[in-house]
Amino acid sequence: MSVVIDARGLSCPQPIVRAKKAVDEGISEFEILVSDDASKENLKKFADNSGYAVESIVVDSGAYRIKMKKTSFIETKTDSAKEEFSKKKALLIASDRIGRGSDELGSKLLLAFIYTLTELEKKPGVIILMQSGVRLATEEPQAIENLKKLTDSGTDIILCGTCLDYFGLKEKVAVGRVSNMYEIAEILLTADIVSLP
């Protein structure tokens, strides 16, 4: 194998961007070096969605050496699937409260908003939690309960992995799935977006 991509020390989404360039160039087999668990997990998901298999993961000098190889079939999102997704609402929550002024009031408003979503007939297709918004799926019991109800009704809850790492909350995820900036950007560019500050 001659193609080795050095993405050590790069933050999300740079390792995926570099892997995608290799995929777009038609490189059928390559290795990528990354420094952290989050990048390793993100690349595994990326491989699954790009028609590649992770053949091996080796720890080498404090980094992960991930070998990726093109498979005979591709499980990527089709244009019709992207079109279908674009009809859904994506809700971006980038804080653990709504607005500025009283933090206590902002927190109460956001919890009431999430509860109200569970009672509406039409639910968002996806809720993306970023920045301190990840606290809603890790530390806030009322929000966790209502986010679980939304998940049960078909809403995809996505948490920013970099944000969870920053706040030290990755081990406390109670609802939703951890993702990366690459997938989040893709979703935000295809869905009808509603954003809460």
Write out key terms for the chains shown.
single chain, 197 residues, alpha/beta, Translation Initiation Factor IF3, Hypothetical Protein Ychn, Chain: A, 2 domains, five-stranded parallel β-sheet, four-stranded mixed β-sheet, 7 helices, 40% helix
What is the CATH topology of the largest domain? Answer: Hypothetical Protein Ychn, Chain: A
> Average pLDDT value?
87
Distance between the termini: 47 Å
Number of strands: 9
What is the helix content? 40-55%
**How would you sum up the global shape?**
elongated
Number of helices: 7
- CATH C-level label of the largest domain: Alpha Beta
CATH architecture of the largest domain: 3-Layer(aba) Sandwich
H/E series: EHEHEEHEHEHEHEHE
Radius of gyration: 18 Å
* Percent of residues in β-strands: 15-25%
Low-confidence stretches: 75-86
For the biggest sheet, the summary is:
5 strands, parallel
- Compute the number of structural domains: 2
* Major β-sheet strand ordering: 8-7-6-5-9
Classify the secondary structure makeup into a structural class.
alpha/beta
Give the CATH superfamily of the largest domain. Answer: DsrEFH-like
Question: Which helices and strands occur, and which strands form pairs?
Answer:
Elements: E1 4-6, H1 14-24, E2 29-34, H2 37-50, E3 52-60, E4 63-70, H3 79-86, E5 89-93, H4 103-119, E6 126-129, H5 141-152, E7 156-160, H6 161-167, E8 177-179, H7 181-190, E9 192-196
Parallel strand pairs: 1-2, 5-6, 5-9, 6-7, 7-8
Antiparallel strand pairs: 2-4, 3-4
